[in-house]
């Protein structure tokens, strides 16, 4: 039998051309072979209709180059209400890359004053006033650092942020290139991962260094940060302890002063009484 394409062409020719063409009669001497309109259709007509050209690739439309957004972008992050500007000149933000800091700590530090109530960190270059970190794991708006109620807080926006202890970075230098005071604590947890769903984290004397994602760049907040429980200064005979310890020390100092003042007043009264008694005896 004929292939499906040839059979279809033969049926078409029977219906359309059969009325116009005279009936076909096979030549003499070839009666054994089946001659019909099917064979003629499968020959040159079928070839012209189906096999005269290849696939029409050149006639296809060019592929679309547009980028389609299948989800809505998040709105830009806004710092929480209640943020306030820090005291002018009190805090400094310093950044350094780990390979450069290990090679030359003095020249690797880059600094900027923290005068605004909030600073956003990320990889976007379209947001004004944003601190840039172009690592591939850093989101467009990654982390926010804002000042509220006299303390600096760190809030992860769209990516993981790691809060680190300053004891892990012995090459820290301040804006003048001097070695800063170092603070430590008895806890063994020196790195804390902050996810976007986690609450804000308060910066302290020891936990004041952070990084975005897996970037090699570190950011350090230098200034009069508060103490956390158990944090002490590494150098010095009388280490500075937490706020609760300072309050207890002040209470003890006031109590000692009150006791000394009471003893002095008691001694003065006893001396006055003894003098008046001796004066009476003389009379």
Describe the structure.
Helices cover 27% and strands 20% of the residues. With 283 residues, it is α+β, with helices and mostly antiparallel strands. It has a six-stranded antiparallel sheet. It has a five-stranded mixed sheet with strand order 4-3-5-6-10, with no helix packed on it. α1 (4-16) crosses α2 (37-50). It is elongated.
Write the SSE topology.
Elements: H1 4-16, H2 37-50, E1 92-97, H3 98-103, H4 105-108, E2 110-113, E3 118-122, E4 131-132, E5 143-148, E6 151-156, E7 161-165, E8 183-185, E9 191-194, E10 201-202, E11 207-212, E12 217-222, E13 231-233, H5 243-282
Kindly state the mean pLDDT as a whole number?
Answer: 77
Query: In terms of quaternary structure, what is this?
Result: single chain
Strand fraction: 15-25%
Q: Which consecutive residue ranges, at least 5 long each, have pLDDT under 50?
A: 236-243
Rough shape? elongated
Please work out how many helical segments DSSP would assign: 5
Please report the distance between the alpha carbons of the first and last residues: 160 Å
What is the number of beta strands? 13
SSE pattern, N- to C-terminal = HHEHHEEEEEEEEEEEEH
Taking the sheet with the most strands, its summary is:
6 strands, antiparallel
Which strand order does the major sheet show? 2-1-12-11-7-9
Cα radius of gyration in angstroms: 44 Å
Indicate the percent of residues in helices.
25-40%
User: In terms of structural class, how would the helical and strand content be classed?
Assistant: alpha+beta
């Amino acid at each position: 039998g004929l292939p499906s394409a040839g059979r279809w062409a033969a049926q078409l020719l029977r219906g359309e051309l059969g009325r116009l063409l005279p009936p076909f009669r096979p030549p003499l001497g070839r009666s054994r072979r089946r001659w019909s309109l099917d064979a003629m259709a499968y020959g040159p007509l079928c070839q012209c209709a189906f096999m005269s050209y290849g696939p029409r690739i050149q006639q296809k439309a060019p592929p679309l180059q547009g980028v389609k957004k299948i989800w809505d972008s998040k709105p830009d992050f806004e710092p929480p209400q209640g943020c306030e500007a820090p005291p002018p000149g009190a805090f400094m933000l310093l950044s350094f890359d780990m390979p450069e800091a290990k090679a030359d700590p003095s020249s690797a530090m880059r600094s900027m004053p923290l005068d605004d109530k909030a600073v956003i960190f990320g990889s976007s270059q379209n947001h004004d006033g944003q601190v840039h970190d172009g690592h591939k794991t850093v989101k467009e708006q990654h982390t926010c650092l804002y000042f509220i109620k006299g303390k600096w807080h760190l809030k992860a926006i769209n990516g993981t942020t790691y809060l680190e202890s300053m004891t892990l970075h012995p090459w820290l230098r301040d804006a003048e290139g001097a070695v800063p005071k170092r603070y430590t604590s008895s806890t063994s947890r020196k790195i804390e991962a902050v996810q976007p769903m986690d609450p804000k984290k308060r910066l302290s004397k020891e936990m004041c260094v952070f990084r975005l994602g897996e970037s090699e760049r570190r950011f350090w907040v230098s200034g009069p940060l508060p103490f956390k429980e158990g944090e002490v200064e590494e150098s010095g005979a009388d280490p500075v302890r937490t706020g609760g310890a300072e309050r207890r020390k002040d209470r003890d100092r006031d109590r000692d002063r009150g006791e000394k003042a009471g003893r002095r007043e008691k001694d003065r009264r006893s001396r006055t009484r003894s003098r008046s008694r001796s004066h009476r005896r003389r009379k």
